Amino acid sequence: MLTAKNQDGTLITLPEKITREALKLVKDNQEFYCPCCESELIIKAGDKKIPHFAHKKNPLCTASSEAESAYHLTGKRQLFNWLQKNQITAQLEAFLPDIKQRADILVTSNKGVYAVEFQCSIISVKDFVKRTALYLEIGVIPIWILAEKNLRKNQADAFMLSAFHWQFLNETFKRPLIITYCPEKGHMGFLQHLTPFSARTTYAAFVRVKLASLRPCTLPIIKEPLLLKTWFAKRKSWSLFSMRRINRKDRYYAALYNNRLSPATLPFEIGLPVKGMWAIETPAVKWQGWLYMDVLYTREKGEFITINHVLYAFRKRQRKGDIKLRSLALLPDMDCTAIIKEYLYLLVQLGYLKEETAGQYSICEVIQIPQNDIEVENLEKSLYLKLTK
To answer: Where is the Competence protein CoiA C-terminal domain (predicted)?
Structure first.
């Protein structure tokens, strides 16, 4: 930690750099205590170590959730200095006695009180949710910033996001995004337009901005990535190789088999990217596949479906555990109605449905199921051309 209390109860923050002589003078003439647990602290510093306080006997301090690295200490100091330079009232390592929790930075403004957490170590989702809930209990809005070193890029515009990473998704700027920071390069990152393909791969746009040139409460304009070509390649790979990884107990593949469908010939209209589907943990090729089998598969041209019918089928699959929504600490109340409407709208644009009245659709064309590899190729190309228009 960077802040401690001296014997008079005054809060002391260590400077970023301190000479050996000055450090010896401080050590010889003062005693320091933890603002959280009141136990004695010592100063640790060296040629490679950032000057910081540490518990003398290393007790289990309730406000210290994990050990701090130089990366973390440097990062939160840089963020604190940046806020102060922008005339933001901020306190470094503020201890909140009501919840026995210490915020990396506590920000106070006319809009509210915010706890800025620069998270460098990977913690459990349970701990993330608990810490978030405690802040909200006392009216403090948490702003979680992910250490960029923990963001794994798989390929161009593709990121490996675990359940831990997804917890950082928030709508601080009225758009779902994940904020990152790298103290080594001094830039803040913004991960936006998140479109998950699977539990492992999420496509997104990522932009870095130098912290010195960024103003608080501003968001750089991020263009949505053109990932249709990449998405189709990934979708094709799923069709070809998912059979190799099938779990016989997987209800989805069993349902495909019972409906005389297979991943290799599943129409590409199943598994399309739509806005907002970051809220659904189940891959698009599965949740859209369930809707296809439960609602569209047995219906013929000229028949009708309603949005309520589709939502009922979706929620029924939720109750059975076949479709799962993401459990997000910062976005707890999510409704997937808008996502379902987006998918139906896409089917309208592709000519399969027609919205006769609000929420009621007639089937204009039945989604064609390819019978061989040639038909798969031709139907895929035809759909791709429609979507690019």
So the answer is: 249-362
Which of 185, 213, 241 is where one domain is finished? 213
Average pLDDT, the chain: 88
Tokens of 204: 């997104």
Distance CA 169, CA 202 (A): 13
Contact 68, 1 (CB under 8 A): yes
HSE-CB at 165 with a 13 A cutoff on CA atoms is 24
Are 140 and 47 part of one and the same domain? Answer: no
Structure tokens at 379: 């139907």
The two structure tokens encoding residue 5: 């209390």
Q: What is the pTM of this model?
A: 0.85
Tell me the C-alpha distance between 16 and 298, whole Å.
Answer: 68
* 44 and 76 inside one domain: no
Q: Do 323 and 280 meet the contact criterion of CB atoms below 8 Å apart?
A: yes
Q: State the Cα–Cα distance between residues 46 and 18, nearest whole angstrom.
A: 10
Residue 163, classified by CB atoms within 10 Å of its CB into exposed (0-12), middle (13-18) or buried (19+), is: middle
Distance CA 314, CA 337 (A): 10
Helices (H), 88-172: 125-137, 163-166
Number of domains in the chain: 3
Mean pLDDT of 369-384: 93
Q: Measure the CA–CA gap between 98 and 125, rounded to whole angstroms.
A: 22
| Half-sphere exposure at residue 33, Cβ-oriented, CA atoms within 13 angstroms | 11
Confidence of residue 60 (pLDDT cuts 50, 70, 90): low
Distance CA 63, CA 263 (A): 50
Q: Structural domain of residue 161, as residue ranges?
A: 70-213
> For residues 313 and 309, what is the distance between their CA atoms, to the nearest angstrom?
6
DSSP string across 272-304: ---TTGGGB-S-HHHHHHHHIIIIITT--TT-E
Mutual angle of helices 373-388 and 228-241, in 10-degree steps: 160
pLDDT digits (tens, 9 = 90+) for 77-96: 999 999 999 999 999 989 99
Q: Are residues 372 and 256 in the same domain?
A: yes
